C-alpha cells in the first residue's frame, strides 16, 4: 500500500492563491460563474474554489483557460500574483 502525503502549503503559496482568486473574481465582473466556467471548460465548483483561494495552486492550463475566459493575459496574472523577488 502506498501512502501519499501532501506537503503543506507555505503562507506565501496560500497568499498567492488568494491573490489569484481575487484577480479572477474581479475580472469576471458581472458575468456569472456558470458562464465563465463554461467558457473555460471547467466546473463551476472548480472556479468557485479557485476564486475563494481553496485551490491555491490550480493547474496551469486551468488558470490559462479561466484567464482567457475573463480577458486577462498570463502576464497580467503573473504581475498580480507573484511576489516580487527582491
Automatic annotation (TrEMBL):
Any Pfam family: HTH_31
MF (Gene Ontology): DNA binding
Coiled-coil region(s): none
InterPro entries: Cro/C1-type_HTH (IPR001387), Lambda_DNA-bd_dom_sf (IPR010982)
Residues annotated as domain HTH cro/C1-type: 22-77
The protein's name in its UniProt record: Helix-turn-helix protein
Species, as recorded: Kutzneria buriramensis
